[in-house]
Each structure stands twice: as structure tokens, then as C-alpha cells.
Amino acid sequence: MGNRLTQIATRTGDDGTTGLGDNTRVSKASGRPQAMGDVDELNSHIGLLLCEGLPQDMRELLIDVQHQLFNLGGELSIPGFELLKDEALAQLDQQLAHYNARLPRLQEFILPAGTRAAAQAHVCRTVARRAERAVVALGAQEPLRAAPRQYLNRLSDLLFVLARVLNRVDGGDDVYWKSERLARYQSDAAE
């Protein structure tokens, strides 16, 4: 693994390249730095979500997710290296089942809205999807383990569920898309 950063302004990236964890240099426009950057952005957005008033169990989960995303980013930065463990994916599956069990079935598509915390969880979800697409694109260009892609896919699902949970913390609800289908459903249910 490469040296840990001891200074930030090294000027080595002035030529449009960046150093990977194995000390190779690649273009900043290539797939690996793109995927690493999207994962880093996701981690930053989760940090912003953690500034909100969250239930303690959710806070602890998201802090662990930040550590796992750092592992995922580290794995992306060192071709052929494994940092993200199978247990991390299993934890997401467990938490997804746990939080989803509390929620009513969806009646219709929901908007990425509601409370500030829920809206931020939706931002995290969309950035997770972008990071997943970047990892898929990288995997089409060079060998890559399935775990990073699977983790991001599961995490985006979990973030969607957490947004729904957060909208209900103080008795709220999802913000449903006002579709004709939903209006008919509600009209039929009222009759």
C-alpha cells in the first residue's frame, strides 16, 4: 500500500494524473479515479446526514457504513486488493430487513422529499447509485471483485428505506408522487 498522506499540496496531480495505492499513476479522467471519487462523495454526503438528529441505532449504522465505504474506496485505489469483507454486505442485508419490516408497503412512487434528514438520505441514495454505475463501468474495463458493486447496490436500497423511516420519526409519512393511478386508488378506497 502506498504511503499515507503527510502533506496535501504535493503538486503531483498538476499534470492531470493521480496516484493509486499501489504507487502507479493514472489519468484523473479514467474509470478508477471516477469510481473512487463517487464513493468519496457518497461518504461525504453520509457525513452530512449524520449532522441531522437521527435515531441512535441508525447513527451507529451510518458511522459503520462510512468506515466500509472507506474500505471500498481503498480497495478501488489498489487494483487487485481486497478490503471490503463479505460481512459488510451481510450487515446491509440484515439492516435492510430490520428497517423495512417497520414500514408499510409502498402505494406508489415517492418523491425524494419530506424531512430534511429524509431528503438528505435520498441524496445519499442517488449518489450511491452513481457510484455503483461508476464501479460497474470500471468493472467492464478491468477485473474487479463483485463486492464493491454489490455493496453500493444494497446500500442505495438501504438509504431509500432509511429515508422512509426518517420521514416517520415524528409521525410523518412518505411524500407520494401525485399520479393518476394513486388518485384512482385513493378514490376507490374512499368509496
- Give start-end ranges of low-pLDDT stretches: none
CATH class: Mainly Alpha
Beta strand count: 2
Structural class, from secondary structure content?
Answer: mainly alpha
CATH fold description? Hypothetical Protein Ta1238, Chain: A
Silhouette: elongated
Quaternary structure: single chain
Give the strand order, joined by hyphens, for the main sheet.
1-2
Helix content: 55-70%
CATH-defined superfamily: Cobalamin adenosyltransferase-like
* Continuous helix count: 6
Beta percentage is under 5%
Report Rg.
19 Å
How far apart are the termini?
A: 66 Å
Total number of domains: 1
Largest sheet, in brief, is: 2 strands, antiparallel
Helix and strand pattern: EEHHHHHH
Mean pLDDT over the residues = 89
What descriptors fit this protein?
191 residues; mainly alpha; Hypothetical Protein Ta1238, Chain: A; two-stranded antiparallel sheet; 6 helices; elongated; ATP-binding; ATP binding; nucleotide-binding
Write up this protein:
It is a single chain. This protein has 191 residues and is mainly alpha-helical. The chain has a single domain (28-97, 107-186), classed as Hypothetical Protein Ta1238, Chain: A (Up-down Bundle). The chain is built from six helices and two strands, in the order ββαααααα. The protein has a two-stranded antiparallel sheet with strand order 1-2. β1 (17-19) and β2 (25-27) form a beta hairpin. α1 packs antiparallel against α4 and α4 packs antiparallel against α5. The termini are far apart. The relative contact order is 0.14. The mean pLDDT is 89. InterPro entries: CblAdoTrfase-like, CblAdoTrfase-like_sf, PduO-typ. Pfam families: Cob_adeno_trans.
